[in-house]
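User: structure tokens for Monopolar spindle protein 2, please.
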Amino acid sequence: MTDIDKTSALLLDVVWQAIDVKGTGYVYGRDFSLVVSKMEEILNKGRSGSERATLVSKTGEEILKKFSSDQEFFKVYKEDFCELFNGLIGTSFRNAVQRFTGNGSLTFLRNEHQTTSFYDNEKTPVDSEALREEVLALKRTISELQKWNSEKEHDISSKNEVLAELRQSNGSPSGSPMRKVGSRTLEAQVATLKEELNFKDGIIREKDRELLSMTEKLEDFKNKYEFLERGFQFYKDHGELQKPEAIKEATKHEFIISELRRKIQDQSELIGAMRTQVESRKVALPAMREKSVEASLPDLFSLSTVLKYIVGAIFLVLAINILLYSMAFLKSLIKLNPSQELNSKIKLKWWEQSSVLSKVHWFFTDFFEYDWDPASDEVLSANYDKLFGV
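Assistant: Done. Predicted tokens:
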């Protein structure tokens, strides 16, 4: 660790001991500017008016004052002081202290002991109102950090555009050295801005978690306070002090029962509200009649639909047969062998030339002209299949 690091660490220890006399490990945001001014006071001891200097500039002082006034109950921990200082001022705490470094400065700080408390008679606020104010302060801090974050992102995007243009112009070896130096400078600035952006993102995430924790604590305290208030009012109405032990125990049970009833009523109201929302979102559907399977079949398969499918199937079969007959006829015209010439002399009816129509015709002819016994139908079918090799 260098002398500068030792000086800055020792300076922070001396001033922190003087401010945080209770040893809580943190100071409130309203004391942040006081910590910086106390450091300046210690570092400027023994210096004349012309030699006196400040850790931050005028703009930095305004930023610190605004932070102290806006974030009065924001907790600044000792280990986070340097990071917060860098985030608010834009300069590291080490570099700010380095300007005051001189001969014997480290020895002077080691001999410096500040024991005066700036809050001898002040109590740390721990009630629910203080928690609520701290939550509001955290919200304001987060909004400011998000705004600052968006501005930094805009600056980074503009720097990236300029950097891209410089890279395009310096892509060839003929680029000027000055442009290359400017490009490297911009790259360093972009890297610094990215680091600052990551730091601010970390602070925002940490404050979000702290805000959530504070909100949960506030809600818990509120529920406990309301519960105690209801219990006090209940026992006050029932005159608890003038009753025997048995009646007191019964009164206690009555209070528990009343609390359970209240919770049931709250849940019932919540369920009713949810039911109302669900019913308001329902889509009105047409009422459907209760139909049996037998009653629904005619609706699904009406007579017109059945006839349409039958006629379509007949036309499809006829079209296929006509197409096949035409193909066979054209083939016979192109080339006929002796067996085909012999078969061509046999004149068949048009429906006999189609195997499907011929089978249908002979099936119905045999069925109506010959008195078939239904019991012998399977035997005839088996003989037919055996005869024709089916």
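User: Anything notable?

Assistant: Residues 113-127, 283-296 have pLDDT under 50 and may be disordered.
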